[in-house]
Amino acid sequence: MLCSDKTGTLTTAKMSIIKDSIFAADGFTNEDVILYAYLCSNADKKDDPIDGAIVKAFDGDATNYEQTEIIGFNPSVKRVVAFVKSGDKTLTIAKGLPAKILDTAAGAVDDHELQWKVDKINDKKFIDETEQIDTTLSTNGYKTIAIAVCEGNARDLGDAAVWKFAGLLPMLDPPREDTSATIESLHHANISVKMITGDHANVGKETARLIGLGTNVLPGEDMRNAPSETKNKLIWDADGFAAVLPSDKREIVLTLRNHYGVVTGMTGDGVNDAPALSAAQVGIAVEGATDAAKNAADLILTEPGLSPIYGAVLESRRIFSRIKSYVVYRVAASIVLVLTLSI
Length: 343
Hints:
This protein is α/β, with parallel strands linked by helices. The chain is built from 13 helices and 14 strands. The chain has helices at 30-39, 49-57, 98-102, 124-139, 154-157, 179-188, 201-211, 220-225, 228-237, 246-259, 274-279, 291-296, 307-342, and strands at 2-4, 16-17, 23-24, 66-71, 79-86, 89-96, 142-151, 163-172, 193-196, 217-219, 240-242, 265-268, 282-285, 299-300. Helix 4 packs parallel to helix 7 (201-211). It is elongated. The model has no long low-confidence stretch (mean pLDDT 92).
């Protein structure tokens, strides 16, 4: 069983903003959404798939704004918060997983210093419309980044802070050209593949469909909330999991390895993949992985994508077959020699 991260492993991680599909909430324009996303990004992190795509797509004027502080992305909180000054005004801007931007307690309460609910969280029509648009975009394969804005310093305002939902930014992260063929080859070699991603479940399902995996991709929340007596079967039956935490990835790997007794591999490239990489029997850091992932892995790929894994499987099986043949030959020869001398 090979468990694989999605972004940068099954996909190219070369994201692009689809400007024509930006959704702006009432009171905001498409230009506002991408401006706020830019102000909540680190312009120096051009190698980061999301920040790099936003910086590249922004073609407006941000000279009147100054980013004074940024609280970076964390796999468990799934959002970034930036403090921005514009003249005498201060803005607090957040970008991240739509559910976490609407209500930071969604899925599970996290340990981020700033917690909020957007001002229209109780407006059923607004929430239904936003969720419908998010679902439509993610079903079509777009990764969606939500943006929210608070006038003033949210840290100082505390509970008095008013967060307004600005809109959704759709991003496209296409699968690698060789991923589908590699998945098919791995299946032919009797190696099953499960996708484990932090993205929305609908994005995971669409990516799985494109690369030839099963589309029974479940939200990580389903696994976390499942009773202990049914959790193991849920992990085994699912084709993959989405919106997971680093601890979820590790739990999935350990369940497959220890409860079901299958040889389990894990591929990934980020810090959030490190716990699962170290838990797997074969941890594989893909090309361009972080130092944390490389240190936790058993194998480090020097070429992009999963295709080198299939080559490694074939070569290792050839080596094993030759060793086995040699051992059988030596045992047989030894038996003949012992019998001859004994007689």
